[in-house]
What does this fold into?
Amino acid sequence: MHSSFLPPRQVKIGDAAAFAGSTPRAIRHYHEIGLLPEPARGSDNRRRYGYEDMIRLLWIRKMADAGIAIVW
It folds into this structure.
């Protein structure tokens, strides 16, 4: 079986928000308050979210849904 390496997919803020059950505005807020580091930007100067960003975003959302305040 031959497998080829595919780099992790990078998504735009709207797709990241939809995946995490959030909004682009909320994600921008997480950047502003330091919960989510500013991601790399693509050639079009738009934010691109990778695997690590998505895991962190899901963690932030789950904590918020559970009513746990996150102080950074």
Remarks:
- The first helix runs from residue 13 to 20.
- The chain is about 45% helix and 0% strand.
